[in-house]
Amino acid sequence: AQSVTQPDIHITVSEGASLELRCNYSYGATPYLFWYVQSPGQGLQLLLKYFSGDTLVQGIKGFEAEFKRSQSSFNLRKPSVHWSDAAEYFCAVVGPNSGGSNYKLTFGKGTLLTVNP
Amino acid sequence: DTGVSQDPRHKITKRGQNVTFRCDPISEHNRLYWYRQTLGQGPEFLTYFQNEAQLEKSRLLSDRFSAERPKGSFSTLEIQRTEQGDSAMYLCASSAHTDTQYFGPGTRLTVL
User: Fold this and answer.
1) Which residues contact A106 (CB under 8 A, 6 or more apart)?
2) What is the Cβ-side half-sphere exposure of residue A74, based on CA atoms within 13 angstroms?
3) Chain A residue closest to B40 (CA)?
4) Can you give the pLDDT at residue B98?
5) Are the beta carbons of A11 and A113 closer than 8 angstroms?
6) Burial class of residue B63 in the structure, from the number of CB atoms within 10 Å of its CB (0-12 exposed, 13-18 middle, 19+ buried)
7) Edge-to-edge strands, sheet with B65-68
8) Could you report the per-residue pLDDT of B48-69, keeping only the tens digit for each?
9) Which residues of B touch A90 (CB under 8 A)?
10) Residues of chain B with pLDDT under 50
11) Distance of alpha carbon A98 from alpha carbon A110, whole angstroms
12) What is the three-class DSSP state of A61?
């Protein structure tokens, strides 16, 4: 079964600092990978996705992520964090053509980002 | 293009009562999903519809849970005889053929 690990439960950065959130997945082939962001009490907003092709993908709000097959990782980065980026971030995977289950998102437990002024 | 909407946003109920939630997907999306999210966890898959057909149900979806999508548009999720363990955020998502799921704001259920 596929799984997603987000090793950092909580990260605190200063406004203007760079950010990297880690995500590792377990899957037999190359999955579709996603990062979502969730503000308190809200639903999930899609930041970016990787299906194939260029392994560095750009998303909304200045975020980017890099797919590294050799490390089974899909880390999220931002060069300069803004106070409004404080939220919870979820990495997710869905496996194409996996016995028909190519639609079920499997999420990590999330990383809570705190931004200090 | 409006996003996914869910109603109600918050629901407080007493143990043993029945509750029903509604999800309206993005209009051209034929796939609809329900997830449940408990505190400190990522969302967990509950069920999936393609048009009006319910194609998969998670083992998390006990017999007290039922979901419908009668005309392939909106969907309802009903929980009968609610228990305190049902307290969670219930999220709905929809997608077209691209496999990218777009989420609604969620319904927060509190069972007293």
Assistant:
1) A2, A3, A4, A92, A93, A94, B45
2) 30
3) A109
4) 64
5) yes
6) exposed
7) B5-7, B19-24, B75-79, B65-68
8) 999 999 988 888 888 999 999 9
9) 42-43
10) none
11) 24
12) helix
pLDDT band per the 50, 70, 90 thresholds, residue A94:
confident
3-state secondary structure (DSSP) of residue B105? coil
The Cβ of residue B68 has, within 10 Å, a number of other Cβ atoms equal to: 14
Angstrom distance (rounded) from CA B109 to CA B84: 10
Run of H or E residues at B54: strand B53-57
Q: Which residue has the tokens 């995977």?
A: A93
A13 touches chain B (CB under 8 A): no
By DSSP bridging, strand B53-57 and strand B44-50 are antiparallel
Q: Which of A66, A102, A110 is nearest to B42 (CA)?
A: A110
* A30 or A44, higher pLDDT: A44
Tokens at B112, concatenated:
């007293």
Is B100 in Cβ contact with A34 (below 8 Å)? Answer: yes
Cα–Cα separations (whole angstroms), residue B38 to A60, A77, B21, B89, B110? 26, 26, 17, 6, 11
CA distance B47 to chain A (A): 9
Q: Give the residue-averaged pLDDT of A5-12.
A: 97
User: Considering CB atoms only, which of B35, B102, B106 is closest to A46?
Assistant: B102
